[in-house]
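May I ask for a sample protein chain and its fold as tokens?
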Amino acid sequence: MIKTDILIVGAGPVGLFTVFEAGLLKLRCHLVDALPQPGGQLSEIYPKKPIYDIPGYPSILAGELVDQLMAQIEPFKPGFTLGERAETIEKLEDESFLITTSRGTQLNAPVIMIAGGLGSFEPRKPPIANIASFEDRGVEYIIRDPELYRDKRVVVAGGGDSALDWTIFLSEVASEVMLIHRRKEFRAAPDSVEKAHELAEEGKITLMTDAQAVGLSGNGKLTDVVIKHKEKGEFSQPTDHFIPLFGLSPKLGPIGDWNLKINKNAIEVDTFDYSTNIPGIFAVGDINTYPGKLKLILCGFHEATLAVQSAFKIINPDKKLSFKYTTVNGVNGF
């Protein structure tokens, strides 16, 4: 059995930052994650995607952010159980928690910090009859390595941040980029929408609203996307890659059976310290919900910072918490 002070379920960016904040309070952490490497979605889905809302970084690739977070927590020597999903939880006689993973590993801690991001997830696929036959043969739902699209023709579908951000990024990589969206209005950040329109005016991308993909063709590999446009009707667009970015369909997985208070596939928390309805269990990052919730990495960092303050009091009920600024003593001073 692995014992620690705080058991963190989820090794994404918020889970990793939790280790740092806990380490400042001399609390030991162990992380468990179903993915085979730390970083969560940043590592698994879009390691080469630029992120723009991390303080101090005008832009940083998702994979680089994970590297920086891993370097930041290295002095605190966290433990990792990777490639194993947290399955069951039980409370022991000493009030601590015992989590058993999908491979039977047992993890024990007085505090559980759930930082599971969106939980387990599947990409939302467009209703195209033969789309499955072109998956990994020209159809991708996730961009892991943008170099795959170097000097290739690409059609991106979607109207959210991911579709806009990748369209902008691929405009400097692919030979041709077309963005199609079934509505006129986008659901992305205004800056991204403005940038996409600028690229369209400059002829660097083709932007087509009131349009959607309705068919795919090719002989073993994708060669064309059939697009239905409100005014132009149906036409065939030659392409090497079709990337529908309609978001992910998240599921809580086994965590949904832990008797936590759930609201629309997210865990309800108290914003005082992001505690759940079960004392000793906290939820931080995209997996939680509360009035005014914003699903940003930045917000998850804030939530983790406050949560470990209460975790300290649970782990050390007889000790007085004396929080110091890192600018005064530095990490090694703790």
In short: The chain has two domains: 2-121+248-333, 125-244. The chain has a mean pLDDT of 91. The first helix runs from residue 13 to 24. Residues 14 and 301 are 6 Å apart (CA to CA).
